[in-house]
């Protein structure tokens, strides 16, 4: 007999479900004020918002990385495949199929590109042949990394380091990648390249993404669904195509309005007057 959970929602299985979470740093600083979001299987979900909106905090709440920052989830729940992951450490999460690629693309600078990638396979128990196969898969998606595989990671470019960080995550065979600000500090062409790879991984390998980005324009072109965070609250959410056409999003996040493109100065002065609520 089917239970209620099986009879509802047969098409888009929900992988990650963040329900009304509150996060406090240092016991007093309330940063997330009731954030809810879901990531369906096979989806690219964007978490958008400006500096300090709470994107990284949300990802770290999911992957249980807040303790080292004196942060704590004080309300709400976080579930993966219906199971609470509140107490799962990052290694448990990797086993469940969830991995975070941190903001600022941390690599082991003194290791080569390939050694960095292999560190991502440390939880694997399926032997060298399978690991080698996945290394080939990573090189297939990131041909630049193949070229640079013997180079010391610390001497590769910012874009290559972002690719190393993503490639290393792939080596754990994740079902869902929490990807924090992949576009940060990269030239537009490289940003396109990296988002193109995200799309390919999503479509061909079935990897789901929760993607934190300030770059609304790029993120909404590649994501299926978006949430906009401001000061620790979701102020708007919807299918990416709808958000792209939303006049407020156009004006405040894409720097455009119906009268055409506005200058950055105009947008800034509008920003000061803006009220979502
Ligand atoms: N360890 C910490 N202790 C205290 N406050 C923190 C800590 N980390 C972040 N914050 C605060 O929490 C808020 C949200 O920060 P967060 O890093 O989640 O934002 P973000 O959306 O990722 O921003 P950015 O786009 O700049 O990366 C900010 O006001 C920030 O100052
Ligand atoms: Mg951040």
Explain this structure:
With 277 residues, this protein is of the alpha/beta class. The chain has 3 domains: 1-97 and 174-240, Rossmann fold (3-Layer(aba) Sandwich), CATH 3.40.50.300; 105-173, no CATH class; 246-277, no CATH class. It contains 12 helices and 12 strands. It has helices spanning 4-7, 55-62, 90-96, 113-119, 127-141, 143-147, 158-170, 188-205, 216-222, 240-245, 247-252, 264-273, and strands spanning 14-25, 29-40, 44-48, 71-80, 83-84, 98-101, 176-180, 208-213, 225-230, 233-239, 256-257, 260-261. The longest helix has 18 residues, at 188-205. The chain is globular, with a radius of gyration of 19 Å. Mean pLDDT is 88; it is low at 1-9.
SSE blueprint:
Blueprint: H1 4-7, E1 14-25, E2 29-40, E3 44-48, H2 55-62, E4 71-80, E5 83-84, H3 90-96, E6 98-101, H4 113-119, H5 127-141, H6 143-147, H7 158-170, E7 176-180, H8 188-205, E8 208-213, H9 216-222, E9 225-230, E10 233-239, H10 240-245, H11 247-252, E11 256-257, E12 260-261, H12 264-273
Parallel strand pairs: 3-8, 3-9, 6-7, 7-8
Antiparallel strand pairs: 1-2, 1-4, 4-5, 9-10, 11-12
The chain binds adenosine-5'-triphosphate and magnesium ion (MG).
Adenosine-5'-triphosphate (ATP) binds next to β2 and α2.
